[in-house]
Write a structure and sequence with these properties.
6 helices, globular
Length: about 120
C-alpha cells in the first residue's frame, strides 16, 4: 500500500494527474483491510463532488483536480475517525507550501495536492 501511495504522489507531482488504476488498486487493498469503510468513502466522494462542482460553477476554475477528489474518497475508506481533520490537514499543508511559493514570487506555480493528501492520511492512519 505504501508503495502505491508513493507512486501516486510522484506521478501527481510530475504529471499533475492521479492514475485511476492506482486509485482503484489502493481502494481494493483498503477495502480488504476495512470493508466497512466503503460507506464512508462513498459519502466523502458525494460531498467532495458537490463541492468540486460548486466551486467550479462559481469560479469557472478548477481549484482541485478530480483525481484529488477520488483520492480523498479512497483514503477515507481506510480511516476509522478524524475524517474532517484528515481533509483539513491536507489543505493546510498544501496552503503553507503555496504560501511559501507566493512569498518567493512564484505565483503561477501549480501545486500537486496528492502528496499532501497522502501525508495527512499517513498522519491519521
Amino acid at each position: 500500500m505504501y508503495l502505491i501511495l508513493l507512486v501516486i504522489g510522484y506521478v501527481d507531482m510530475k504529471e499533475k494527474r492521479i492514475p485511476n488504476e492506482l486509485s482503484l488498486l489502493l481502494l481494493f487493498l483498503l477495502l480488504l483491510k476495512r470493508p466497512q469503510g466503503l460507506i464512508k468513502g462513498l459519502g466523502v466522494f458525494l460531498i467532495l463532488n458537490l463541492l468540486y462542482y460548486l466551486v467550479y460553477l462559481l469560479s469557472s476554475k478548477e481549484v482541485m483536480g478530480y483525481g484529488d477528489v477520488k483520492l480523498f474518497s479512497v483514503l477515507a475508506t481506510g480511516l476509522e475517525k478524524n475524517l474532517l481533520a484528515f481533509i483539513m490537514l491536507s489543505f493546510i499543508l498544501a496552503g503553507l507550501v503555496a504560501l511559501t511559493f507566493f512569498i518567493r514570487g512564484e505565483r503561477k506555480r501549480d501545486l500537486a495536492l496528492a502528496p499532501f493528501i497522502i501525508m495527512s492520511f499517513l498522519y491519521f492512519k
